[in-house]
Design goal:
- This protein is an alpha/beta fold and about 600 residues long.
- The protein has 3 domains: about 10-170 and about 500-595, FAD/NAD(P)-binding domain; about 175-260 and about 460-475 and about 485-495; about 270-360 and about 400-425, no CATH class.
- Helices cover about 35% and strands about 15% of the residues.
- The strands form 5 sheets. It has a 6-stranded mixed β-sheet, with helices on one face. A 5-stranded parallel β-sheet has the order 8-17-9-12-13. It has a 3-stranded antiparallel β-sheet with strand order 4-5-6.
- A hairpin with an 8-residue loop joins strand 15 and strand 16.
- Helix 7 (about 295-320) packs antiparallel against helix 8 (about 330-335), helix 7 runs antiparallel to helix 12 (about 400-420) and helix 11 runs antiparallel to helix 14 (about 440-455).
- This is FAD/NAD(P)-binding protein.
- InterPro entries: FAD/NAD-bd_sf (IPR036188), HpyO/CreE_NAD-binding (IPR038732), L-asp_N-monooxygenase_NS-form (IPR052189).
- Pfam families: NAD_binding_9.
Length: about 600
């Protein structure tokens, strides 16, 4: 009689998410799978642990945008999970660096490699790990049978009892606008760099001394700024930038017209806001129980508004009492009864918080330059430098610690949104979260100010418009803050990551999965069961043997990494997926033994 094949799991993507899943698999194995045999196949063209984004072969100038003390790959008792808590060091503790430093991506990649090695070492003797440094091309196989994972450069597919997709950030084919801009650039001998991971872009095409229009003011722009300045030999002396002469001139604008808010530069002290308060499991359960689709602005945003506001005012009243004019218990009771966005709530806040600067205005935070006009481009430069300077001062001032309370509330909110899956908001929430909570380190914004004073960076402001001028054969750009003033350039850079859409992804595996029946949201995210990450098919049923975790799914979590003691929804997702996978493997093993 032929021997039953060893049980097998294929994990596609061996970066942080694949490593996190492996850690949870190792943690849950003793209780759920004992010492049974298992093969784990990790498929990734980049080294396991760091994967593509955190690989060693990238510029040492590129930093994380998280403090070393705020990065952990290990669970703690703040995480709601069914599996065991397995504590471990933060990046700061592991690397022996200052907790409030911003390590290089290379250093983070080394930490991730160590975490991966620890997870492999924790696996029982009967479990074997196989690394495949290539791409997965397609998954096939019946719902109730073994899956076949075809790999690039390998004739025979991997056979798997289940497959986990942990692909991370995806490349994408250009959309219609990007194709038009690339075609225009090709016709006129111009340079157009579409959305991409900046470290992988060919920046050598951007010549020294020439203007470059940059659309996007988030973290991709910060990387671009670093690689085109220090990366070309420039240097900083205190608050002054000394150009090398090899830099282009970057004209940068975006919808908001400002960079993401600086990382907060102080630690939490004192009483934490009671989170969740207005948007927790009970409210999420109620939303999930409603018939029909949810509307983000109508059903979800009021809960977010209320939660963020409560955290803000709780901190203001408890830590900065001298700036309030009411007792917290009375204010909290009235706040709880008021409708978000109502005149009643506005009057309550105005009476209790005398200084308008101490009141939370989410719209003003999201669109700080709405309606702001400048007579000239030079006036805009001065205005933006003043804005960035003020943001830096505020985000490093413990007297404004209500901002850190709002940050903690944002993390809490994200933990609930993961359960809701597709928000139907076109990605606006994720963009708002990133802008407010996932901005660059303060030193990067101080460098941006120095570059602005040196004339290497010029601000275009909010509401950026980009045109392709066929008659003159140039790109043109203008912002809403200086009406009628246009900038012309022979190069355009889209400073953002591609949108993770199933229809336009360059991943042949995901494209085939979509063609074979996997469900996608209107925004192109892969629909998964929020309970355990199983991929949903077009009939709404979760596939019993296919899982997906990460930013290309409807259960994506906020931020690349988890701060210690903040609940870590990504940890909970990894744990639930690992336990579901082990449960299936145990069931199959029992079935095989009974039929033997």
């Amino acid at each position: 009689m032929s021997r039953t094949p060893r049980p097998s799991v294929v994990v596609v993507g061996a970066g942080p998410r694949g490593t996190g899943f492996l850690e949870r698999l190792a943690a849950n194995l003793p209780a759920l799978y004992q010492d049974l045999e298992l093969d784990i196949h990790l498929v990734d063209p980049f080294p396991a642990g760091g994967g593509r984004i955190w690989r060693q072969e990238q510029s040492p100038l590129l930093w994380m945008n998280s403090m070393a003390e705020d990065v952990t790959m290990f669970t703690d008792d703040s995480v709601q999970l069914a599996g065991p808590v397995c504590p471990g060091p933060t990046l700061a503790e592991w690397a022996g660096v200052e907790g409030q430093s911003f390590p290089s991506r290379r250093r983070q990649g080394a930490y991730l490699r160590w975490v991966y090695e620890q997870a492999v070492a924790a696996l029982p003797l009967g479990v074997r790990v196989h690394e495949h440094r290539t791409r997965a091309l397609r998954i096939s196989g019946p719902r109730e049978g073994r899956q076949r994972v075809r790999l690039e450069g390998r004739e025979q597919p991997l056979l798997a009892d289940l497959v986990v997709l942990a692909l991370g950030h995806l490349d994408a084919e250009p959309d219609a606008e990007q194709r038009e801009l690339s075609g225009f650039a090709a016709r006129h001998g111009l340079v157009h760099l579409p959305p991409d991971f900046t470290a992988d872009s060919d920046l050598s095409a951007l010549p020294a001394g020439e203007p470059v229009i940059v659309r996007g003011f988030g973290l991709a722009f910060i990387d671009l700024m670093v690689l085109l300045t220090e990366g070309r030999g420039g240097r900083y002396e205190a608050d002054t930038y000394r150009p090398s002469g090899r830099e282009p001139v970057l004209y940068v604008g975006s919808r908001r017209g400002v960079p993401y808010h600086s990382k907060i530069g102080y630690a939490w002290q004192g009483e934490r806001p009671p989170l969740p308060r207005f948007f927790g499991p009970a409210q999420t359960d109620e939303l999930l129980g409603r018939p029909g689709p949810l509307d983000f602005r109508r059903d979800i945003w009021p809960l977010i508004d209320k939660e963020l506001g409560h955290a803000h005012y709780h901190r203001l009243f408890t830590a900065h009492r001298q700036r309030t004019a009411a007792a917290w218990p009375a204010f909290e009771k009235a706040y709880a009864a008021a409708t978000p966005g109502s005149a009643e709530l506005a009057a309550l806040v105005a009476a209790a918080v005398p200084d308008p600067a101490d009141r939370l205005d989410l719209h003003a935070l999201d669109r700080p330059l709405d309606g702001v006009l400048h007579p000239t481009g030079d006036a805009l430069q001065e205005g933006l430098r003043a804005y960035i300077t003020a943001d830096l001062a505020r985000r490093h001032d413990p007297a404004q610690s209500q901002d850190l309370a709002v940050f903690l509330a944002l993390l809490s909110v994200y933990g609930q949104l993961v359960r809701l899956g597709d928000l139907g908001d076109g990605g606006r929430w994720h963009g708002f979260f990133s802008y407010l909570a996932s901005g660059p380190p303060g030193p990067r914004l101080r460098q941006l100010l120095a570059l602005s004073r040196a004339g290497v960076v010029r601000f275009l402001g909010p509401g950026i418009t980009v045109e392709a001028d066929e008659r003159r054969g140039l790109f043109r750009a203008a912002g809403a803050a200086v009406p009628g003033e246009w900038t012309e350039a022979r190069a355009l850079v889209e400073a953002r990551l591609p949108d993770p859409t199933l229809e336009r992804t360059r991943s042949p595996l995901l494209r085939a999965l979509y063609a074979d029946g996997a469900r996608a949201t209107p925004a192109g995210l892969l629909r998964v069961d929020p309970a355990d990450g199983r991929i949903l098919e077009r009939d709404g049923r979760p596939h019993p043997r296919r899982f997906a975790l990460g930013p290309h799914t409807t259960a994506r979590a906020g931020g690349a990494f988890t701060r210690p003691r903040t609940g870590g929804p990504a940890f909970a997702q990894n744990d639930a997926a690992a336990r579901a996978a082990l449960g299936l493997l145990r069931e199959l093993s029992c079935r095989d033994r009974l039929s033997a």
